[in-house]
Amino acid sequence: MPDFQAWTTRVATRTEQALAALLPAASIAPERLHEAMRYAVLEGGKRVRPLLVHAAGVIAKADPAVLDAAACSVELIHAYSLVHDDMPCMDDDTLRRGKPTVHVQFDEATALLVGDALQTLAFQTLARPGLLPQPGTQVELLHDLAVASGSRGMAGGQAIDLAAVGRQLERTELEFMHIHKTGALIRCAVMMGGRCGEPQALPVLDRLDHFGKRIGLLYQVIDDVLDAESDTATLGKTAGKDAAHDKPTYVSLLGLSDARRLADELLDQALADLADLPRAERLADLARFIARRRF
After folding, report:
1. With b meaning 16 or more CB within 10 Å and e meaning fewer, what string describes 70-96?
2. Angle at 238 between CA 237 and CA 240, to 5 degrees
3. Of 191, 214, 215, which is closest to residue 204 (Cα–Cα)?
4. CATH number of 4-292: 1.10.10.10, 1.10.600.10, 3.30.1360.200, 1.20.120.140?
5. pTM surpassing 0.90?
């Protein structure tokens, strides 16, 4: 198989092209909204969730064009969540992906509408008639994305996060929060990729689900570590904001050394979930990439 870096570059490029084609042109009315939508989504981010969709899709021998649609739908949900999270009523941040956040570059009302529009575009993309030859599987994908995005997933996790400011959570509480806030969409990306191709046996789907859960937590642990020890220029977003806002993190709960140790444990468990699964090399590579990322 081609080396990992070449593969990630190829998938990220095709995802960028697919997103650019999906998003309305800035010349189409309402121009300001469409310009802001493109600003929020394009030319930024590591595209980890689309990479996970495509990597799991390799296991299922899925059509890359179908994986593009699934990957874009997940990334659009992720982008909308960042736009809303950065607003003054949430985390009140001014920098995202190395440039001003949407409400700073445009205005708060536009940022709110950008998030709304990106969310609906995600489901429009996944609901395209004929995307999958099995309509039942397509409905499953829509259901999974809706659950991962809503009050039982990402939005619910954000609500728990906001309510936890100024409190020191127990580890089980912190894990519950991040299983929802960060982990739900990452877990969903893995499962969507696994469902986009040849039907997989239930034990395979279970292992992919376990892998996705561990990777979601791993991503958050590393995010907390980076927030504590990296600078703003490296991260492309405001460094140290969790501590400044008195938010509970794995670093504040465990300390840097134990947080790193937890990341190593989660990586080992995730790789064990993939043991003996055919064509799982890309998922394993991604797990290692997430564990070792520096921004």
Report:
1. bbbbbbbbbbbbbbbbbbeeebebebb
2. 130
3. 191
4. 1.10.600.10
5. yes
One pLDDT digit (tens) per residue for the chain, 295 residues: 459 999 999 999 999 999 999 999 999 999 999 999 999 999 988 999 999 999 999 999 999 999 999 999 999 999 999 999 999 999 999 999 989 999 999 999 999 999 999 999 999 999 999 999 999 999 999 999 999 999 999 999 999 999 998 888 899 999 999 999 999 999 999 999 999 999 999 999 999 999 999 999 999 999 999 988 887 777 777 777 777 778 899 999 999 999 999 999 999 999 999 999 999 999 999 999 999 987 7
At position 167, the amino acid (one-letter code) is: R
CA–CA dist 249, 252 (Å, integer): 5
Please list the residues that pair with 95 across neighbouring strands.
100
- Cβ burial of 184 (10 Å; 0-12, 13-18, 19+) is buried
Pairing outcome for strands 95-96 and 99-100: antiparallel
Location of structure tokens 């998003």: 23
Question: Where do the H-state alpha helices sit in 127-201?
Answer: 135-149, 154-163, 171-181, 183-195
Q: 13 is written with which tokens?
A: 């490029």
